[in-house]
From TrEMBL:
The species this protein was found in: Dehalobacter restrictus
The name this protein goes by in its record: Chemotaxis protein CheW
One Pfam family this sequence matches: CheW
Biological process annotations from GO: chemotaxis; signal transduction
GO cellular component labels: cytosol
Record InterPro entries: CheW (IPR039315), CheW-like_dom_sf (IPR036061), CheW-lke_dom (IPR002545)
Length: 142
């Protein structure tokens, strides 16, 4: 039995996040830059009065960006609320046959790969996208 994932794009690639870690999806409007932050921190977004740190996954994963991110996926990771900027939300889908990434893939945040007839989806493991110290810094930022 598969698990439901939010499928999104970064550049020309597609990624999935387990739906149970996603609190909401919102279109990006105003991002408030924060000076002297890591280059992958785009800034803060305000959702219902709460300041949420927004991470640019293009910068964090070193993926070329074709255009400005249009959406934010708000996630809860270890009691921390964080947003990730993504290009496009593609679908919510049950992913079957998730296979472990090959040994040459050293990124711990890759939870598996799904090979569909028409495309490939990299399933992310939210618990490993950020190091513990990064999460603490992001929590302090908000």
């Amino acid at each position: 039995m598969g698990s439901q994932s939010v499928i999104f794009s970064l550049g020309s690639e597609e990624y999935g996040l387990p739906i149970e870690t996603v609190q909401e999806i919102t279109q990006l409007t105003e991002v408030h830059p924060v000076p002297q932050c890591s280059r992958h921190v785009k800034g803060l977004i305000i959702i219902r009065g709460q300041a949420i740190p927004l991470i640019d996954l293009h910068a964090k994963f070193a993926i070329p960006s074709r255009n400005e991110a249009g959406f934010a996926i708000i996630m809860k990771i270890n009691d921390n609320v964080v947003g990730i900027a993504v290009d496009e939300i593609i679908e919510v889908r049950t992913l079957e046959n998730v296979v472990q990434a090959p040994p040459l893939v050293a990124a711990s945040f890759i939870g598996g790969i799904v090979n569909l007839p028409d495309r490939l989806i990299v399933q992310l493991d939210p618990a490993f996208i950020f190091r513990t110290d990064e999460l603490e810094d992001l929590k302090a930022l908000a």
